[in-house]
Write a structure and sequence with these properties.
6% strand; alpha+beta; Conserved hypothetical protein from pyrococcus furiosus pfu- 392566-001, ParB domain; flat; 14 helices; single chain
Length: 363
Amino acid sequence: MQKQEIRLVRLGDIQPHPLNSFFFDDITGDKWIDFKLSVADGLINDPILTSQLVTVSGHQRFRAMRENGVSEDTMVRCVVRTYTSETEILRELIETNIQQRGTLMCSAVKMGRIAMAMEEIYKVRRGRPPENPNNVGNSDEAVTKTQAEIAEMLNQNMETYRMNKKLAQLPQEFQEMIERGQITPSTGARLIARMDDASQQKLLQLLPSDIVQRFTQADIQGYIDKINELQSNLEVAQAAISGGTDEWLKLSDERDRAVQKARDEYEKASLLRKEVKDQEKRLSKAQEQWELAQARADGSMFEGTAFSMIDSALNGFIRSMDFLKQSDHPLANLNGEQIKYIHSLFGKSMQLAREVSQILRAA
């Protein structure tokens, strides 16, 4: 049996397990919002830590606490266990996540990593447990799981289980492209996983390096066909060469030119996309300027604010001045009191303008 104790541990002293993000994705979306709210009401289950205060179960709970603004000095009630091996820690890390999350919302690549780790933990080979199973950690239960049982734990059928394992064995570059959504899991398992190591490396060299471009199965198949065609031509040339390598070099150069041409065309397309985005930004800015001018024209620029009356008054003042400029003798028919009143209005307007200017400079 594992030794364990209940302890209060400072949140800032708790460390994540280095492999947690390798196997599991963070909770996102509405489910994450609901989860944070539930954590704000208090932890229902105690997180599990190793004796070195490394998290085995509770990564998402600690993440939610920190996003909720909980201080790093807060003391958290935890189960601190003493494990006998890293394998025992890894098994509990994976299995507690499976139990607590119910349905794992992981990528196909990470599901494949989990499957391979579980097979290694349980010493599964070709779907069967070992004839003389070893015990895991201090458990008295013998290891007897099969691939089918692990697939059932992961809520997968065997076809999906095998496909995900293939993805987890691809070179890291392809795994990252699948995780980003550039290549679908089915394309990775059905096409790329069937290629030998050398062909996979050639495919990586041919694919543009844009981290946002999405490749369909037809795109990948086209690159594979090109690789196979070039390889076939090289083999024919090598077989036909009797005393030199001119033909082989010619075909090799042709391949390099084709690759460079594809990259040049892709760079041109990238520049064009950038130009389109720049035009969209300029159009958006022009739209904002037009809306501002419209607001100024119809008097709605300061609607609902203390400046709305000032804006209205100034617009009326400007229209009055335009009228005065268009009249031949605007003051001819006014008496002395009227002229004196208008003169006082102009004086007050100038005083108000100075006061508003001072307010604006202080803002």
